[in-house]
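User: Hey, quick favor. My workstation is busy. Could you predict this chain's structure for me?
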Amino acid sequence: MLNASVALSQIGEGEAGEGPSPYVDCGIGGALFPTTSWAAVTSNVIWDAGTTAVTSATMSPETCNGKSVAMAEYVKGSYASLEMDIISGRGAYLNGLSQVSGCGAEPSEAFVTAVRNSVKNAVSSESAVVEQDKQAMLFNAAYNASLSCTS
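Assistant: No problem, here it is.
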């Protein structure tokens, strides 16, 4: 029994309470509302009962800041213009999204296609999508598309 407790104590490197706050710093809420805690918590709970936030905090705490936050701020601050660029398949705001996603200033065709298809499929499957949900869908689409970027 002593060996098991020693082994378990060596699993985590940090102290209890270290790391990101799941509902505030992680998930779609933490990404879309990095400076407004109540909005981050509300968004995470509404989006998927906080499952994504807790999972990202537990499994990959490094995703709770950095690129994700920059992407979320960009999507939130320029959603209407991004929507127009995504419809046309090109434009300065789509280039900016590619840049903050870590995919370079000129988005690849694969990035644009992935974002367009994900957003189109998500929005067409919902009868009444509110602006915040559209922003979350776009963020998720861009984040997933950025995972395959080579630049």
